[in-house]
Amino acid sequence: MSNQPIRLGIISALQQEQNGLVDFMEHPQASTRGMRNYVGGTLWGIDAVCVLSRVGKVAAAATAATLIERFGVTHVLFTGVAGGVGEEVRVGDVVVADDLVQHDMDARPLFPVFEIPLTGQSRLPSDRHLTQTVARAARRFLHEELHEVVTEDDRHLFRLQEPRLHLGLVASGDEFIHSRDRLGDLRTVLPEVLAVEMEGAAVAQVCFEFGLPFAIIRTISDGANEAAPIDFLQFIDRVASRYAVGIVKQVCEMLKN
């Protein structure tokens, strides 16, 4: 991590994924740009700007670009939920992306599948140092704080016995994956993918083009299968923000030391 002062842009797609975070912000100041409310202030000793992007790649990209151009953030963190891929990735686990791919990017025959035209990139690596910090923060939250902030009833409901941290490939696309067949198709072409969602790789592309460090953290809300719509709605209402607040707090405390 460089020695420059940090201004952390924190993005989530939905209110439930970031609910309560701004309540911990000191001296919050809100402003509206492009139909989005950006709230700046100090979070656990770190200069930060929080914003809800709404759902999808275009919404996320516009939000990330505004954070960089208008609010001068130096680092970007996306926190939210995702569908888990594979038997080892379960509801309540946390996936931190070390690479991201837009699974719906296909400009063949002009460019190889998944390659973002005119960038030469198909997989976008997250910033190594920030990602390592986020992974340590998530691991600490899971091991030391989860049982304090998530009720016993919710831990039982979602079977959050010993949630685990995973580091690997996250795939993004403008599609809510809720079919075993569709998920199987994705795993055929991206066998190492750990989570599917709708914003991360778009944020990654913007940060890549602006040369800013970023990290993407996803709490697994469902199995990206036929039960996904029900599991997603319950998890996001009852649990998601507790993960976000707990992990972001740990990230901020690590970044300021």
Main features:
257 residues, alpha/beta, Rossmann fold, five-stranded mixed beta barrel, globular
What does this structure look like?
By secondary structure, the chain is of the alpha/beta class. The chain has a domain at 80-255: 3-Layer(aba) Sandwich (Rossmann fold), CATH 3.40.50. It has nine helices and ten strands. The chain has helices at residues 15-18, 57-69, 128-144, 146-149, 152-157, 180-189, 200-210, 228-238, 240-255, and strands at residues 7-12, 26-33, 36-43, 46-52, 75-84, 94-102, 124-125, 165-172, 193-197, 214-222. A five-stranded mixed β-barrel has the order 5-9-8-6-10, surrounded by five helices. Helix 2 (57-69) runs parallel beside helix 7 (200-210) and helix 3 (128-144) crosses helix 9 (240-255). The protein is globular and about 50 Å long. It starts with 6 loop residues before the first strand and ends with a helix.
